[in-house]
Amino acid sequence: EEQHGRLQVIQTEVELINEDNILHATRSAGISFAQSFNFLMEGALSSEHNRRTMEEELRAFHEYCQRTACLTDEQRLTPSFPDIESYIAYLRDSVKLQGMD
C-alpha cells in the first residue's frame, strides 16, 4: 500500500515536470491573461465590492510607496511625468483610458 502511494506521487510528479505539460499550461495561462487584460484595463470587471477607479488605484499605489518607501520618487516617476497629477491627466485626457473616473 505504501509503495503504491509512492508510485502515484512519482507518476504525478513526472506529469508535472513534463515539458509538453509545462508548455501547454504556460500557453493556457498566457492566453487567459491576455483575454482578461482588456476587461481589466477597461474597468469592466463584474465586482460590486471594493471597486476603485484607475485614478484611485494610482493614488493608493503612490501613497503606499511613499508610506513604505518601497520605491523612491526616481523609481516611481519619469521625466515625462514628474508627478502623479501629470500622469493621471495624461491617462485621462490624452490616452482617454476608460476607468479613470
Descriptive notes:
The chain is mainly α and 101 residues long. The protein is built from 5 helices and no strands. The chain has helices spanning 2-17, 19-41, 54-68, 73-76, 84-94.
What are the defining features of this structure?
101 residues, mainly alpha, 5 helices, 68% helix
Concise overview:
The protein is 68% helix and 0% strand.
Chain-wise SSE layout:
Layout: H1 2-17, H2 19-41, H3 54-68, H4 73-76, H5 84-94
Major sheet description: none
Q: Mean pLDDT, as a whole number? A: 85
Strand content: under 5%
Spans where pLDDT lies below 50 across 5 or more residues: none
Total count of strands: 0
Radius of gyration based on Cα positions: 22 Å
How does the overall form come out from the CA principal axes?
elongated
Could you spell the SSE succession in H and E letters? HHHHH
Span from first to last CA?
Answer: 61 Å
The helix-and-strand class reads mainly alpha
Number of helices in the DSSP assignment: 5
Give helix % range.
55-70%
